[in-house]
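comment on this one:
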Amino acid sequence: MFFANCQFACPIIVSDMKRIETALTPEVRTRVAFTLVTFDTKRDKPAALAAYRLTHALAGENWTLLHGQPDDVLELAALLGLKFKEDANGQFAHSNVITILNAEGEIVHQQIGLNQDIQESVRLLRQLVAK
């Protein structure tokens, strides 16, 4: 989860996700979906997310950027074990987590923190695709 106006953590999370994508073979990469869901239900409408996609070069069919209703975003964050809170300036303090789900939508792994070693995430994605 992220928000498009983030100036610190979210660009690093996206960069970490792109590093994971790059580390996958082309065959595995085509079977992995990368999804970003925004915390910012007020500003991150489809046009803002489309601009974010272009700015951050999130090309390809395997990248999806989503927004939702506030209650749905809260529920998803809770299900993923993520916390976020909007401050008075419209910024969000939030967990820095990349979550890997299996085909059934179950959490398989969470990469916690920024600029972490991606090898375990890559290994698990390869393993999931091989099933």
Q: What stands out?
A: The radius of gyration is 14 Å. The CA atoms of residues 40 and 90 lie 8 Å apart.
